[in-house]
Here is the input.
Amino acid sequence: KPCPVNFEFMNYTIITSRCKGPRYPADLCCQAFKDFACPYAEDLNDLENECSSTMFSYINLYGSYPPGLFASLCRDDKVGLICPAS
Amino acid sequence: TNNRYISYGSLSKNNVPCSR
Here is the structure.
């Protein structure tokens, strides 16, 4: 099942300008990640498509982040990372 | 109400290298 969102040419500076190594502070990185990803939450949470894998490939590519950074850094609630009310 | 979230299932894709 293809991803309906095109993650290839998106502006990742919302993440890359705020989440920086070598420390990758969790508060900044996770908030930046949510600011980027929350608009696409429904498509990302659909594990029948490739959206999530594709998005992380580009995030890691544009930000040169270590694999698994956001998965190991970010925890909110038992269901996942809570998105701000729109 | 706001019940939007990024699931951990989705987040776990961050661990999978794209070549796999």
Notes: The radius of gyration of chain A is 12 Å. Helices of chain A lie at 13-16, 26-37, 41-45, 51-63, 69-73. The mean pLDDT of chain A is 95. The interface with chain B takes residues 34, 37-38, 41-42, 44-45, 47, 52-53, 56-57, 60, 67-71, 74, 76-77, 79-86 of chain A (CB under 8 Å).
